[in-house]
Structures are given as C-alpha cells and as structure tokens.
Design a protein that fits this description.
about 200 residues; mainly alpha; Tetracycline Repressor, domain 2
Length: about 200
C-alpha cells in the first residue's frame, strides 16, 4: 500500500528548506533545485506543490509570519490570562527581535525577503500589508492603554505604533551585527515602553 503524504506538512518542509538556504545565501541563492535537495525531495515533487519560485516564496513568507504570530501569542498566554496593552506590545517587540537562534534565522530570512521585495511587486504588497496591519494593531493597543488611563498623556497611538516598529527594526540590525546583545535590546524596549506608560 503506498505511503500517504501529508501535503501541508510537505509544503512546510519545503518552506523550512527555503529558510535555511535564504538565511545564509539570500533568496537569490535559492533555486528550485537547491530547495528540493535541501528538503530531501525531487525537483518534480517540489514542482507538484509550487508552480514556481514566486509561489514558493509567498507561501514560505506567510508560513514564517504565521509561526512568529503563534510564538508571540504563546508567550503572552504563558505570562497571563488577561494581558495589558503594555504586556502585549512588549511581547510583540520581543518576538520581532533576534533573541534566540530561531528568531535570528527567521529575521535573516525576513531580510532576504525585504531585499527581494524592493524589486518584486507581489512581495512588496505583502510586506506593505503586513506592516500596515502591525501598525494598526499596535495603535489599537496604545488606544486601549490611553482609554484605561495607563498611557502617558497626549500620546498619539498611530505615531507611537510606527516608532515602536522602527525601534525594533533598528535594534534588530544592531543585534544581528553584534553591536548590542539581545538582553540590551530588550532593556531598550523596556525603557522606551516605560516612558509611554504611566505607572
């Protein structure tokens, strides 16, 4: 009897193979043949799941984003059943920083996607939509904090949301270049949030 194949699991294995290549060689170094070899499957099997590189890249990007969101949700749930906006923002920022090997690899792949998105309209739209949604989510957390009386007076939610995204982007570069440690990056995030939240 032929072995049954879990198609979603196979697609995830292909995405993970792509990340391993992209984290060291960038997306331009990720040919279909190389990804198939890294995943331990034939090129024909890979092409059964993805018609071309662009389709594979978008799937892998969506999958890695989903994993990141799941990891952040899990961290927040492990901390408390009813997180405050500050806790949510802090854990989101932590999930966006290279604090361990897993997030470091994910961010290196993200950088490879960013570089490709500069010239690839489909990936650029995906990245724009992702950042717009993230900014809206952060702004909503700041609005909730303001409504609860927990935010500093006069805080502008949209502006602070964008500044927090920019802060984590900048800290990510500094950690990846070994200018600061992951611990120092989180200390800076905490210092920034301390100034934005009353009490």
């Amino acid at each position: 009897m032929p072995k049954r194949v879990d198609h979603e699991e196979r697609r995830r294995l292909i995405a993970e193979a792509l990340w391993r290549i992209a984290s060291t060689r960038g997306l331009e170094g990720a040919s279909l043949r190389d990804v198939a070899a890294e995943a331990g499957i034939s090129l024909g099997q890979l092409q059964h799941y993805f018609a071309g590189k662009d389709e594979m890249f978008v799937f892998a990007l969506e999958y890695i984003s989903s994993l990141g969101e799941q990891r952040i949700r899990r961290r927040i749930t492990e901390l408390t059943d009813s997180p405050t906006p500050r806790t949510v923002l802090r854990e989101c920022a932590a999930g966006m920083l290279p604090l361990d090997d897993e997030t470091r690899t994910g961010l290196l792949v993200g950088i490879a996607y960013f570089i490709r998105a500069l010239a690839d309209e489909r990936l650029r739209r995906h990245a724009q939509e992702g950042q717009t949604a993230l900014r809206a989510f952060f702004a909503d957390q700041f609005r909730q904090a303001a409504g609860n009386g927990d935010a500093a007076p006069g805080l502008d939610p949209g502006t602070e949301a964008m500044l927090l995204i920019a802060l984590t982007d900048g800290l990510t570069s500094s950690v990846l270049l070994d200018v600061i440690t992951p611990k120092e990056a989180m200390e800076l995030v905490d210092r920034h949030l301390d100034r934005l939240f009353a009490g």
